[in-house]
Write a structure and sequence with these properties.
The complex is a heterotrimer of chains A (603), B (164) and C (409).
Chain A: E1 7-12, H1 24-32, E2 39-43, H2 51-60, E3 66-71, H3 74-87, E4 95-99, H4 101-105, H5 112-131, E5 140-142, E6 146-150, H6 154-165, E7 169-173, E8 188-189, E9 194-195, H7 196-209, E10 213-216, E11 219-227, E12 230-237, E13 240-246, E14 248-251, E15 256-257, E16 272-274, H8 275-284, E17 292-295, H9 312-326, E18 332-336, H10 343-355, E19 359-362, E20 370-373, E21 377-384, E22 389-394, E23 397-400, E24 404-405, H11 415-418, E25 446-448, H12 458-476, E26 480-482, E27 498-499, H13 509-513, E28 519-524, E29 527-532, H14 542-546, E30 552-553, H15 559-568
Parallel strand pairs in A: 1-2, 1-3, 3-4, 6-7, 6-14, 7-10, 14-25, 16-23, 17-18, 17-23, 18-19
Antiparallel strand pairs in A: 5-26, 8-9, 11-12, 12-13, 15-24, 20-21, 21-22, 27-30, 28-29
Helix pairs in contact in A: 1-5, 5-15, 6-7, 6-12, 8-9, 9-10
Chain B: H1 7-16, E1 22-27, H2 30-40, E2 49-54, H3 62-70, E3 75-80, H4 91-108, E4 116-120, H5 126-141
Parallel strand pairs in B: 1-2, 1-3, 3-4
Helix pairs in contact in B: 2-5
Chain C: E1 14-17, H1 21-32, E2 37-40, H2 48-52, H3 64-76, E3 80-83, E4 86-93, E5 98-104, H4 119-123, E6 129-131, E7 141-143, H5 153-157, E8 170-176, E9 178-181, E10 185-187, E11 204-206, H6 207-214, E12 234-238, H7 256-270, E13 275-280, H8 290-298, E14 304-307, E15 312-315, E16 322-328, E17 333-339, E18 341-344, E19 348-350, E20 377-379, H9 389-406
Parallel strand pairs in C: 1-2, 1-9, 2-3, 9-20, 11-18, 12-13, 12-18, 13-14
Antiparallel strand pairs in C: 4-5, 5-8, 6-7, 10-19, 15-16, 16-17
Classes of the chains: A alpha/beta (603), B alpha/beta (164), C alpha/beta (409).
Chain lengths: 603, 164, 409
């Protein structure tokens, strides 16, 4: 595609919506006089009945050029116009839709003269953008047909099973000696009262049954390099190291339990235990009796950990029900700030706990319960803000809800993951994209699920694992993928940054500012020069703006295109067009440039 | 379409107004949606502004802004998404800082910081875009018109771009 | 526009019922994996409830923006066939396949031919021609059947022949190999819970209606006003209104606490002088980024949180605002406070299409939610369990991959 390719202009009347304000007579004349356009034609409603396609065909004939359309906005029908031309073989790179409806006629119906001049400028700006548009290089990524799943808990296992069943090879890496994660440590699983085995066993069986899933226990990932489609992974275990490749990485590394040190005399008084300790007891001992007080929000939902850990309330409820079943005479009380049981199943558990005889006392965070006892806990005192008075509860056991926290707090502590573009949020959990891309990260091909992403219960972790597998499949199920299509929220990225090595001074501004770590400096024979990773680049243009001498650019909207658009922005109403430039002039040649009121256009 | 009692007179008056020229660089997400919304609702606006759409406001460099002023544009508006809403992983944060620095520079070279308007996420509805433009117009109307600078026609800004 | 897939089509089409965030996520993941998808939506456009929200928590993004780019991907995907204004009338069993009978009730104005010129709306004397909701792309007009007198003036005015006031409903049959229910939620009728005063005064509003009322793209352009036009100075948000209540909705709807915080926050941002009080039972901030939004976004901006479940909400005599009666548990006294507006949050229920009953596919709706897991049927999003946008999207993708890998088992 060259900037000297002929440009055919097609205007849309939109049944009077545009030409009822914009004087098409004048507009057409201006455009027809413009030597940069090969033809100008007018349609009634380009979006309907194939009108655009036939006008484009007439204009292009045997020498297809570029198509400049003056019509409605991209969000109205502009998008469809581009797609329509693509269907008849005119690629999107060759089409520009200049918005003279929402952007002009509909805003300035009360000043048609100015609207006409503005429409002319808008079309001219579109023309120069189209003339100077270049096409970014794209790369075909040979995708490794394997998925690396880091972490063998419920999220990781669910991801591995889903990917394995979908027919993709999976490497499931787990640092401990066995798969299962939290499922190995929980006595029962909320919501409801399911056994951890009932959830774990089918997963283990499925993993066993799918030969495409390779399990590496007692192993950690020591290094990952690369980008979407082609990650180079180093594993380390007691028996040695291994290398493998993966097309996608699913991070399911979980989170670590918060030990309530310094909270509620934990560690000083026997009988004050953590929620996880209670799980352990309940797994083996069915004779756990005595009065129990659960204290929720222990060292979480405070300024140190300003988040709710989601799992501690459901855990307390299920265990409270259990304790009442074991010892119906025991007093079981849950002392809380809020009971976090969203949804219908967890709310049903809350009702069951109440029905089972559990008591609930609410305290205010600024007035937490006080533990009583000398060597052993005997009770607690708490100001019940719903009853408006202080209470004294007997307790043989105080259980402090176990929250989870991220394994790693900042990017600095996490070089393995940072190397592939993972970043931590303010709490230390891995940062993910918002809303509909919530298991995806800003690093293409890298996904996060389970409590590594955010505190979540087993069902949610498994659902996220499956979702991550579904997203990973889109990458890994194809032997070859175009880098331009890795951007999640649209079909194709806008551009891929391009470096001009002859002018690049190796300053590194682009590398510093790139949101995707796609720019780096590499050694060349001339010294350090910027280099763009064409798989990571998403085409935002940050590098372009940060470059001191324009050595890096977006081909689809380069500096020349931008400058020409600016120069053409306020030129209509000045009717002289330089005919000396028949589209064949060298772009560096000086043009006829008038001052101020005469100003017009060259190139 | 708007109906006026004396269409000819009103039109002539509006057509002959010379408003300040504004160049708007709008990202095609929040800002583009706002501009489109204004058009969809047919909110009447002065016609002396032009919009250049970019994929992300982070594309806009100080050169582009200065080039605009040197072409005789009276005001430049950079419109992007709100700071936590950038589709490109907070790329607009750098833009916000860059434009803030540029503002101070504009003061010192006599163009004036008031001629540069930045908005991140406050112009995503039609009426917001329209209000923003009207307020900018009013602000610029109180200032002298910009002159077009003499530039060396040989020097194309961004001269490092390869020509295919 | 419907496709009848031929028998033995290796693409094994899947039916996705519901075009909200869950349905869209499922449809895209299925389509990308090579399956063809029939995406059925009963409303006029895709996006569901999320696209109609003014703002989203915890990011304060606009509701439509994250959704419309996904909608666009669905619209452009060659393997996704979208049916709007369509419901599933029946699912007929077959061997290995089911036949879905789709009922399409197209609007008199064909959105594919409408260029949004608005002449129809200007010609209509009954206010029966209205535009699609804000941010729908491409925009179009539609006829509101309840106000249409069938005079035909709109149709005469239309330059593109988009209008046919006699446009009939059509029935289409498609063969599908699996069904994913993604029908989402709707506002529940709160009138049985008389204590909330729903319907007794225009300034006692249900949460979704309030969202539209204060939306930037809404009738007040973001301003917080009572229905008589004066600015609202005191707004109360009542949580669990209708929810966690065995009379009406036993479940906790999971999203309302955050929804109220978001609404209160935006009320304060637009009108810092407006007092906002949230009456809550349990403030459920367990989701992704919720607690931080609560602390930084809501508490810091001066929203007052009162732990109480008000026993009565009623309009004060003389049109002087709305009264909220509750117990201040710290002083153990009943209190009455006056507000300009009261927002009832909590009354959401899953959409369970009547057509699901009597299906040959086992679908458990005993809980009120569609908990379908059998062979070739799945559910996702709020119709499966109360879920916010992120969780619904995760459900959708999970349902898709389950359908791809376990379907038919």
């Amino acid at each position: 595609m060259k900037h000297t390719d002929p440009v055919d202009c097609i205007l849309c009347r939109c049944h009077g919506e545009i030409d009822g304000v914009v004087d098409f007579g004048q507009l057409q004349k201006q455009l027809e006089d413009d030597s940069r356009l090969r033809s100008v034609s007018v349609g009634n409603a380009l979006c309907l009945d194939g009108e655009l396609e036939s006008l484009a065909e007439c204009a292009g004939g045997r020498r297809p050029g570029k198509v400049l359309i003056g019509a409605c906005s991209f969000l109205a029908r502009g998008d469809a116009l581009i797609a329509g031309l693509e269907n008849c073989g005119i690629s999107r790179d060759r089409v520009f839709v200049a918005d003279i409806r929402e952007g002009c006629a509909w805003l300035h119906a009360d000043r048609p003269g100015k609207a006409t001049r503005k429409a002319t400028d808008i079309v001219r700006m579109g023309m120069t953008a189209l003339r100077h548009r270049e096409v970014s290089a794209d790369v075909n990524i040979t995708v490794q047909p394997r998925v690396l799943v880091i972490g063998g808990g419920p999220a990781g296992m669910a991801a591995a099973v889903a990917a394995g069943r979908a027919g993709v090879a999976v490497d499931l890496v787990e640092t401990s000696g066995q798969l299962g994660g939290m499922l190995n440590r929980l006595s029962r699983v909320a919501p409801g009262d399911r056994s951890a085995e009932a959830i774990l066993t089918p997963l283990l069986e499925a993993i066993q049954a799918i030969p495409m899933i390779r399990v590496h226990t007692g192993t950690r990932v020591s290094e990952i390099r690369g980008s979407a489609g082609d990650f180079d992974v180093s594993l380390a275990s007691k028996t040695g190291s291994a290398r493998l490749s993966a097309g996608a990485v699913i991070v399911a590394t979980g989170a670590k339990p918060v030990l309530p040190n310094g909270q509620y005399r934990y560690g000083q008084l026997s009988g004050v235990i953590s929620g996880m300790e209670l799980e352990k007891i309940l797994k083996v001992d069915r004779s756990v009796g005595g009065n129990t007080v659960f204290i929720q929000c222990a060292d979480v939902r405070n300024s140190k950990r300003p988040y709710c850990s989601a799992i501690c309330c459901p855990a307390a409820l299920k265990n409270a029900i259990r304790l009442k079943e074991i010892d119906p005479g025991a007093e079981v009380t849950i002392v809380h700030r809020d009971i976090m049981t969203p949804g219908h199943r967890l709310e049903a558990d809350y009702r069951r706990a109440t029905a089972a005889g559990g008591c609930f006392i609410r305290f205010a965070p600024e007035n937490p319960p006080r533990i009583e006892g000398d060597n052993r806990v005997t009770g607690i005192r708490v100001t019940d803000i719903l009853a408006g008075r202080e209470r004294h509860l007997k307790a043989d056991r105080v259980v402090l809800g176990t929250a989870v926290e991220p394994r790693i707090k900042t990017d600095r502590d996490d070089p393995v993951m940072t190397a592939i573009g993972l970043a931590a949020d303010t709490h230390g959990f891995y940062r993910v994209q918002p809303f509909l891309h919530t298991v995806e990260t800003d690093a293409a091909g890298v996904f996060v699920c389970g409590t590594a992403r955010w505190p979540v219960m087993v069902d949610g972790a498994m659902a996220q694992g499956k979702a991550a597998a579904a997203k990973a499949m889109d990458l890994v199920a194809h032997p070859v993928r175009k880098a331009s299509r890795l951007i999640g929220f649209q079909a194709v990225r806008f551009a891929c940054a391009r470096v001009s090595p002859t002018t690049c001074s190796g300053c590194g501004n682009c590398a510093a500012v790139c949101p995707y770590n796609a720019c780096g400096l590499e050694k060349t024979e001339h010294g350090l020069r910027a280099a763009v990773n064409p798989v990571r680049c998403m085409g935002c243009g940050s590098c372009t703006a940060a470059c001191p001498n324009g050595s890096i650019s977006l081909p689809e909207l380069g500096a020349t295109a931008m400058v020409r658009m600016i120069e053409n922005a306020f030129t209509a109403g000045n009717l002289t067009v330089s005919n000396a430039l028949n589209g064949v002039a060298d772009r560096s040649a000086p043009g006829c440039r008038d001052r101020r009121n005469g100003g017009v256009v060259n190139q | 379409m708007t109906v006026h009692s004396d269409p000819g007179i009103v039109q002539n008056r509006r057509d002959s107004e010379h408003g300040p020229k504004i160049l708007v660089f709008a990202c095609r997400w929040c800002a583009g949606i706002g501009a489109d919304g204004a058009g969809r609702q047919r909110l009447p606006l002065p016609a002396d502004f032009r919009v250049i759409a970019v994929e992300c406001a982070s594309r806009i460099d100080p050169d582009t802004v200065l080039k605009s002023f040197s072409e005789g544009v009276d005001g430049v508006a950079i419109l992007g998404c709100h700071l936590d809403g950038c589709r490109y992983n907070r790329a607009n944060h750098a833009t916000a800082k860059r434009m803030a620095l540029l503002s101070t520079l504009l003061e010192s070279v006599g163009i004036g910081a008031d001629r540069l308007l930045t908005s991140f996420g406050t112009a995503h509805e039609g009426h917001q875009f329209a209000d923003l433009m009207r307020r900018f117009y009013e602000r610029l109307q109180g200032m002298p018109q910009q002159c077009r600078f003499e530039t060396d026609p040989q020097a194309v800004s961004g001269g490092g771009v390869d020509h295919a | 526009m419907a496709l009848n897939t031929p028998a033995g089509d290796p693409a094994d089409p899947v039916l996705v019922v519901g075009g909200g965030v869950a349905g869209i996520s499922a449809a895209l993941d299925l389509a990308r994996a090579g399956r063809s998808v029939h995406l059925v939506e009963r409303g006029g456009e895709l996006g569901g409830q999320t696209a109609r929200l003014d703002k989203l928590y915890p990011t304060d993004h606009c509701g439509f923006c994250p959704v419309w780019s996904e909608v666009r991907l669905c619209q452009h995907h060659p393997r996704v066939t979208i049916y709007t204004r369509t419901t599933v009338r029946e699912l007929l069993p077959g061997d290995g396949f089911q036949t879905a009978v789709l009922q399409q009730t197209p609007n008199g104005i064909d959105p594919l031919r409408c260029v949004f010129c608005g002449r129809c709306a200007r010609e209509c004397t009954e206010d029966a021609v209205v535009p699609t909701p804000p941010h729908v792309n491409p925009p179009a007009f539609r006829i509101e059947p309840s106000r249409c007198t069938r005079c035909g003036r709109c149709s005469d005015a239309c330059p593109t022949g988009a209008i046919d006031i006699d446009r009939k409903a059509t029935e289409t049959r498609v063969r599908v190999q699996g069904v994913i229910w993604a029908t989402g939620f709707e506002a529940a009728d709160l009138s049985p819970a008389k204590e909330f005063g729903a319907g007794s005064h225009p300034d006692i509003m249900e949460a979704l209606a309030f969202e539209e009322w204060i939306a930037e793209a809404g009738p007040n352009q973001g301003r917080v006003r009572c229905h008589d036009g004066r600015p609202a100075k005191q707004v109360a948000f009542i949580q669990c209104a209708g929810a966690r209540d065995r009379r009406l909705l036993p479940q906790c709807n999971a999203v309302c606490c955050m929804h109220a915080l978001k609404q209160a926050r935006w009320v304060k941002r637009r009108n810092p002088d407006c007092g906002c009080v949230i009456f809550y039972a349990d403030l459920r901030t367990e989701g992704h980024g919720y607690e931080a939004y609560y602390r930084n976004g809501a508490l810091k901006i001066g929203i007052e949180m009162v732990r109480a479940r008000p026993g009565m909400v009623y309009p004060l005599p003389g049109g002087d605002g709305i009264a909220v009666r509750y117990e201040n548990t710290l002083i153990r006294q009943p209190v009455m406070e006056r507000f300009d507006m009261v927002v009832l949050n909590g009354g959401l229920r899953p959409v369970v299409p009547a057509e699901i009953d009597g299906q040959s596919v086992a679908v458990n709706t005993a809980s009120g939610f569609i908990e379908a897991v059998s062979g070739n049927s799945r559910s996702c999003g709020f119709c499966k369990a109360p879920a916010d946008v992120e969780v619904s999207a995760v459900h959708g993708s999970a349902a898709a991959i389950e359908m791809l890998t376990e379907g038919g088992r």
